[in-house]
Design a protein that fits this description.
The protein is about 25% helix and about 15% strand. The chain has about 250 residues and is α/β, with parallel strands linked by helices. Among the domains are: about 70 residues, no CATH class; about 80 residues, no CATH class. A 5-stranded mixed β-sheet has the order 9-8-7-10-11, covered by helices on one side. A 4-stranded antiparallel β-sheet has the order 3-4-5-6.
Length: about 250
């Protein structure tokens, strides 16, 4: 027992010595001829470095002879510079105009606007470009579809409907390995679904598969149609608002 108590005392002394921060040599640190003051590093001190060490290198602003619509268009590769990477600062946001027959479109600040009076719309340019890649030979039909779905979406939102967030749609996608999104508008359907559409209109994708149905965005006739279909298959998941007891 006595040996055990003595060993405990020795361990305690050892720990105190390790935590001792007294200098090894005492003297004037500014005196070149005298011993410098040296401090021990305490055990819990982690090595540190300035945050700026991990910052990326600065890009130089270089003059590149590329004018939008003259010798470079947005669907081409970005012009390179012989001295390497660069950043170019423009005084104004770029405006890209194009025509498809008699229909004009303008893209600026991430927004694309169809200028045709009877089929006009304004949507995110990313949604427009994504849809155009999948409707290559039917662009005039796509303009009409976007106009109809944009108008319908505006009416639904005025009535209180809100599209689910991307995180919710991602969660729905993990259920039953869902491939198809049903009933969302072409302008708001996310591209990470393999298929998307409404009833017989396919926004993109050719095959059918497990489906996520956004119930609140369906019309009454579409809800009736899906009620019959749901009873015949099990590869679906329905997203809808919670019901009160008197509504069930």
């Amino acid at each position: 027992m006595l040996d055990l108590e003595l060993s405990k005392d020795d361990d305690t002394k050892t720990q105190r010595n390790l935590l001792n921060t007294s200098p090894l040599h005492r003297g004037n640190a500014f005196n070149k001829n005298g011993p410098a003051q040296v401090k021990q590093r305490m055990q819990w001190e982690a090595p540190s470095k300035p945050l700026g060490v991990d910052d990326p290198l600065l890009l130089q602003e270089r003059e590149v002879h590329a004018e939008i619509g003259i010798n470079w268009v947005l669907d081409q590769d970005i012009p390179s510079h012989p001295k390497g990477a660069y950043v170019r600062i423009l005084a104004e946001s770029l405006l890209w105009e194009e025509r498809l027959g008699k229909t004009g479109r303008r893209t600026t600040e991430g927004i694309t606007t169809c200028m045709e009076p009877l089929r006009g719309w304004t949507i995110a340019s990313s949604s427009c470009n994504f849809s155009r890649k999948r409707w290559l030979d039917r662009e005039q039909e796509l303009i009409t579809v976007i106009q109809e779905k944009t108008k319908r979406t505006e009416e639904k939102e005025e009535a209180g409907y809100r599209s689910p967030t991307r995180s919710i749609l991602r969660a729905l996608q993990t259920i039953n390995k869902t491939k198809r999104l049903e009933s969302e508008a072409i302008i708001s359907a996310p591209p990470f679904f393999q298929l998307a559409g409404r009833r017989d209109l396919k926004f993109w994708g050719e095959d059918d598969g497990p489906t996520a149905v956004l119930w609140e965005s369906l019309s009454l006739s579409e809800q009736e149609q899906w009620s019959k279909r749901i009873g015949k298959s099990k590869d679906w998941v329905v997203w809808c608002r919670s019901r009160k007891k008197d509504e069930e």
